[in-house]
Write a structure and sequence with these properties.
With 215 residues, this protein is α+β, with helices and mostly antiparallel strands. 38% of the residues lie in helices and 22% in strands.
């Protein structure tokens, strides 16, 4: 029925459990598909809530998940970055693979702040100077990241939908108290953010002129 109405579809099994039980594993491979960098984190807050991007997360060690992924990337001869996401199955406690994105994570600044500089590793891999790494994590566990602007947006959305203002505020304060690293906004280098603002403004103007349809 879904295919009759919407066209060819891929329907996956629902994995039960809270949305906070989502784990991200960031990897990068060199020209010979050798692992040269890894980083993992658990999502603490999303924007929009339950379905959006990571606006607060905590670094974790997940060598067993990295090990599970390596045969797949070796089989396809993968080069460059990859962002895999798992969800903990509330019924079994198993980490179930949800998706693999063939790109850097949206929370790229998190890994950099924790000492895993994926853009630099990408450059090293491109010129053949990156060193293969093993499954031992090379960063600290328990470091917390946040995106201030999106965090506030998610907080407002929680207020509007939950009806429990005090509970929302207590949760947000508890999350903020564990913050240990910076955020993706580098005020010492504002040019990238100014450029992104201009791009988004241009896209909005074009969308308004075409009635919201892409040209």
């Amino acid at each position: 029925r879904v295919e009759d109405e919407y066209g060819p579809s891929v329907i996956s099994e629902f994995v039960p459990g809270p949305w906070t039980d989502i784990l991200a594993v960031n990897l990068i491979f060199d020209k010979r598909s050798q692992l040269v960098g890894q980083f993992a984190f658990e999502k603490l807050r999303l924007c929009p809530p339950k379905t959006g991007v990571s606006v607060m997360a905590r670094s974790i060690f997940a060598p067993e998940l990295v090990e599970r992924l390596l045969p797949l990337f070796a089989a396809v001869g993968w080069q460059g970055p990859a962002d895999a996401e798992f969800k903990i199955d509330a019924a079994t406690g198993d980490a179930r693979l949800l998706e693999i994105n063939g790109r850097f994570t949206g929370a790229l600044a998190f890994g950099i702040d924790c000492g895993i500089n994926f853009p630099a590793l990408y450059c090293d891999a491109a010129v053949g100077t990156a060193s293969p790494c093993d499954l031992t994590p090379r960063y600290e566990e328990g470091i917390v990241y946040w995106n201030p602007g999106l965090f506030l947006q998610s907080l407002v959305q929680d207020w509007r939908t939950s009806g429990k203002d005090w509970d929302v505020l207590k949760t947000a304060l508890r999350q903020l108290m564990q913050m240990k690293v910076g955020n993706p906004w580098r005020l010492s280098d504002p040019a990238p953010y100014f450029g992104k603002l201009l791009i988004e403004l241009g896209e909005k103007i074009r969308g308004d002129r075409t009635g919201g349809d892409e040209a």
